[in-house]
Amino acid sequence: MVYRCGACKQDIGDFSLVCPWCGAWMTITQARDSVEVDSFPLPLPDVPASTIPRMMTRIASVDALLGGGFVTGSSVLLSGPPGAGKSTLLLQLLDSCAQSALYVSGEESVQQLKLRADRLHIRSRAISVLFETNVNAVVSHVRRAPPGMLVIDSIQTVYTELSDSLPGTTAQVRKCTYLLRRLAQEKGMVLLVVGQVTKGLQAAGPKTLEHAVDCVLSIGMGDGHPGLRTLSVVKNRFGPAGSILSLSMTGDGFSMQEGG
Questions:
Q1: What predicted TM-score, i.e. pTM, was given to this entire model?
Q2: Cβ-contact 54, 70 below 8 angstroms
Q3: pLDDT grade for 258, boundaries at 50, 70 and 90
Q4: How far apart, in Å, are the Cα atoms of 242 and each of 27, 64, 128, 233?
Q5: Of 79, 83, 93, 118, whose CA–CA distance to 226 is shortest?
Q6: Which residues contact 43 (CB under 8 A, 6 or more apart)?
Q7: What's the N-to-C CA distance of the chain in angstroms?
Q8: Which of 118, 119, 72, 114 is nearest to 97 (CA)?
Q9: Helices 170-187, 135-144: crossing angle, 10 deg rounding
């Protein structure tokens, strides 16, 4: 027997008072064998064209890499090994986008983020920082004052009370990502999720996330060149994939050049 949540439409195997996917109470009912149809197929030429709203980073090489900037309401995974510069890159992108932004850290304190921002000469009051590991608390903050961009650094450090698993486990990563994606779509935000991988590029979290997000960016270390990084598009539902951007790490952050 299959049950379905009336709020998020997800199927679950057993009856429950609370939906394990979205947390809604008393919305679980037995799934019907037949579904009432309220949508109809259209011939492909009759499908109306639509314009995808985008948020420009105002860095030409990054906007080109993304296929025209970030898509509002989309979710982006940035994965890479420790020390690759993920947090540095995100702070620079938030500053360049000049949008209201909330940077949620579960690893570094707000004081550590402030030191990093000072090194990068970032003084924008549009960027707020928060040390928090409870995703439900993050959702509450966002609902009170929705930002244009939301960063979660990193997905392995956060948890939701809807799961008894430890942070970083597959169950927690899936449920936290689902809650954050729904929030981004509802508020029209750009969601940027950091996924940590080991130097051997092994980690369950990012691999689990890749199918759940709209865009996957991977930052890699340059072989034999300590200051060289590559930023590649592994997946992109709103643009081309496979493009690569060369990044040079300096004392003031990244300088960005066109890649092959």
A1: 0.81
A2: yes
A3: very low
A4: 42, 12, 32, 5
A5: 83
A6: none
A7: 52
A8: 72
A9: 10
